[in-house]
Amino acid sequence: MGSTDPSSDLEQRLAIAEARLARLEAKEAVLATFNEYLYFLDVGYPDELVPAVFTADATLEVLNFPPGTMADLTFVGHDAIKPLYVAHTVTAPAIQGGHHASNIAIEVAPDCSSARLSAYFMTSTAAVGILQGGQYQGEAVPDGDRWRFRHYRILSGWGWKVARDAIRPVTDAMPAERARDGARPATWVPPAG
Fold this sequence. Notes:
Layout: H1 6-44, H2 46-53, E1 54-63, E2 72-76, H3 78-87, E3 94-95, E4 99-108, E5 115-125, E6 130-143, E7 146-161, E8 174-175
């Protein structure tokens, strides 16, 4: 009869638990980066979006853009990526609607060296009367003190355009300064005192 070493079993279970915890923390970090992407894009902070969300050498692919043209664009690095987001935030910063994400899936590599993200999106723009949707696909990696996307793909899968004379706005966009933290994603702030 062989004997079992309880300390060896405990060490193995602890190692498994630590690996699971590391993957869960990585998943939360990728989700936080994705949420920053959506907030910074829709409220209008391109100067924060690009360095916070993308690695310095990131590749951004935008397929079927502008929507319906079936043209594909590719940008590599911060200097190439930033103008795309600057062009889409000219009336910002403001709370003006924008991208809504759902069906977010994040799968972290067993060794936490990378993670893959996929999500559906829908966006509406009253200014030009467009309702469109598609999918985000990304590969994130640990990069310094956070996770960033080194490859990100936006697929504009469908869209409708509404005649301008059919659009009747009920409100203007709300200035971002009226919201806490300029309508950026929530962050924890220690209590004063």
